[in-house]
Specification:
InterPro entries: G6P_Isomerase, G6P_Isomerase_C, Phosphoglucose_isomerase_CS, SIS_dom_sf, SIS_PGI_1, SIS_PGI_2. Catalyzes the reversible isomerization of glucose-6-phosphate to fructose-6-phosphate. Its EC number is 5.3.1.9. By secondary structure, the chain is α/β, with parallel strands linked by helices. The protein contains 22 helices and 13 strands. The strands form 3 sheets. A 6-stranded mixed β-sheet has the order 1-2-13-12-10-11, with helices on both faces. A 5-stranded parallel β-sheet has the order 6-5-7-8-9, sandwiched between helices. The protein is globular and about 80 Å long. The N and C termini lie far apart (about 60 Å). Bound molecules: 6-O-phosphono-beta-D-fructofuranose (F6P). The site of 6-O-phosphono-beta-D-fructofuranose has 14 residues, from loops.
Length: about 550
């Protein structure tokens, strides 16, 4: 990394000593702390006032962003420059949500035209499936779709379909990803082949999990309905159209995308077909419009008023300056229960790197461990560690002001009260004196108070940010997901890494290929290390009749 970055980073590290250590005191001394450390874009608000930053921290973080030319890098991404340098590819998932009227040129060609041609074809197919026009081989309407894909070809559609359940008026959607036969077995168990449509989703159409599950699904359809039925029960989404043709799926049911769409950034493309069939093309286009609105905000808002930039800066502060190893994503929104899993791929596959764009070693820690569960469930599981554990783990709370169940408003009020209480508790904590006073007021004996009070102390000063939005509708979900994509991009620029490759998943895949003949008994394990060989031998022993 060059000199201006190093200087800005050193200044930030110095500021770490001075930034507020006592957040309660920071809120008392600045009654407008919330106004100073929150930003909004219409009905979406980010509050990071419960993080240990001050105005100087934010100014230094802005300086750091300028030192890596964040604005120039952002413009390069939107303009289709080949910023994925290790794969020599443009990164244009933003073009997938561009309106028809806005051209995006790549190698002299307007990709918006291709994007909308696929969207139109998907919409026509989705409508046909939803209306019953595209019926099964026996003439029955499709009641269930099964998406077979993994990673980016599964997590996004699965997360978004669940998130948008109130808008779901199409066939039921199921998602099979794991190569564990239990996944497809249990999914097919309740289904009628005559009313089931499989969507085989794979960017490369080579991924072993997806190809194995797809072959099993095809066998199931052939057994139940005969080989001729396959055409009416399969569709595919891929960039490898030749491989799809070889699998035998009719060309009219194949929806393409492009190498400039990364797998974990692909739910806006034809990979979103199961979402579109579930919620209908109109709602799907609202979802795209929401993402586009966030793209405009990211591209144009001043850095310190720009929600993805702010989340990236605060994320960098926590990871690279405060050295916190993880971040918890806690949606107080049950329908976002798959968001943490989706973000694990988006964030960790993008920013889990140790080598910079120029091939050198990174100079700061890079992407954190991302994990989470919905609130309030998490409160009754792992929040103990968030409040009193030895590590500080920044928390990202997400919550909607309004639910979709007006007749259950008391549930929503309790949900929000819990969300706010958790972030307040993390920030405020409870001193020994407060713990003692509380116990004495309850009439507990002083000896008992001496013994127990230390266990009832909360350090406080544990950082959290809150994303608050009006309602989780398709437009808002699009904005939220695009926000997270851009936040990952911002952090990657500060880490100096390429967020768009994923070489780290290759080695395990290669070794699995080599181990299959060992596991199934065709080869012996002698050339493997003694642990691997010992485990294989043990598998064989356990399997022996
Ligand atoms: O796990 C690696 C990966 O390449 C992901 O990046 C991708 O989303 C997933 O596998 C699935 O790949 P494909 O869509 O090509 O089947």
């Amino acid at each position: 990394m060059d000199q201006p970055f190093k200087a800005a980073l050193a200044a930030l590290r110095n500021n770490h000593q001075d930034a507020p250590k006592n957040l309660r005191a920071a809120f008392t001394s600045d009654p407008k702390r919330f106004q100073h450390f929150s930003a909004s874009d219409g009905d979406l608000l980010l509050d990071w006032s419960k993080c240990a930053v001050d105005a100087t921290t934010m100014a230094l973080l802005e300086k750091l962003a300028l030192s890596v030319d964040l604005e120039g890098r952002r413009a390069a991404m939107f303009a289709g420059e080949r910023i994925n340098v290790t794969e020599d590819r443009a990164v244009l998932h933003t073009a997938l949500r561009n309106p028809r009227s806005e051209p995006v040129m790549l190698d002299g060609h307007d990709v918006t035209v291709d994007v909308h041609a696929v969207l139109d074809a998907m919409s026509a197919f989705a409508e046909d499936v939803r209306s019953g026009k595209a019926a099964g081989a026996t003439g029955k309407k499709i009641t269930d779709i099964v998406n077979i894909g993994i990673g980016g070809s599964d997590l996004g559609p699965a997360m978004a379909t669940l998130a948008l359940a109130p808008y779901h008026d199409g066939p039921r959607a199921h998602f099979v990803s794991n190569i564990d036969g239990a996944h497809i077995h249990d999914t097919l168990k309740g289904l009628d082949a005559g009313t089931t449509l499989f969507i085989i989703a794979s960017k490369t159409f080579t991924t072993v999990e997806t190809m194995t599950n797809a072959a099993t699904a095809r066998r199931w359809v052939e057994e139940k309905l005969g080989a001729k039925a396959v055409g009416s029960h399969f569709a595919a989404v891929s960039t490898a159209l030749d491989k799809v043709a070889a699998f035998g799926i009719e060309p009219t049911r194949v929806f393409g995308f492009w190498d400039w769409v990364g797998g974990r950034y692909s739910l806006w493309s034809a990979i979103g077909l199961p979402i579109m069939i579930a919620i209908g093309p109109k709602n799907f286009r609202e979802f795209l419009a929401g993402a586009h609105a966030m793209d405009r905000h990211f591209a144009t808002a001043p850095l310190l008023n720009n929600i993805p930039v702010l989340m990236g800066l605060v994320g960098f502060w926590h990871r690279a300056v405060c050295n916190y190893p993880a971040r918890a994503v806690i949606p107080y929104d049950q329908r976002l229960s798959r968001l943490p899993a989706y973000l694990q791929q988006l964030d960790m596959e993008s920013n889990g790197k140790s080598v910079t764009l120029s091939g050198g070693g990174v100079v700061t820690p890079t992407g954190p461990l991302v994990w989470g569960e919905p609130g309030t469930n998490g409160q009754h599981a792992f929040f103990q560690l968030l409040h009193q554990g030895t590590d500080f783990i920044p928390v990202e709370f997400l919550a909607a002001a309004e639910g979709h169940e007006p007749d259950l408003k008391e549930h929503h009020d309790l949900l929000l009260a819990n969300c706010l209480a958790q972030s307040e508790a993390l920030m405020k904590g409870r001193t020994l004196e407060e713990a003692r006073r509380q116990m004495l007021t309850k009439g507990i004996k002083p000896e008992e108070v001496d013994k127990i009070a230390p266990h009832r102390v909360f350090s406080g000063n544990r950082p959290s940010v809150t994303l608050l939005y009006r309602k989780l509708d398709p437009h808002m979900l699009g904005r939220l997901i695009a926000l997270y994509e851009h936040r990952v991009f911002v952090e990657a620029q500060l880490f100096g890494i390429n967020a768009f490759d994923q070489w780290g998943v290759e080695l395990g895949k290669e070794l699995a290929t080599g181990l299959l003949p060992v596991v199934d008994g065709r080869e012996n394990a002698a050339r493997h290390d003694s642990s691997t060989a010992g485990l294989v031998e043990h598998i064989h022993r356990l399997r022996a009749p």
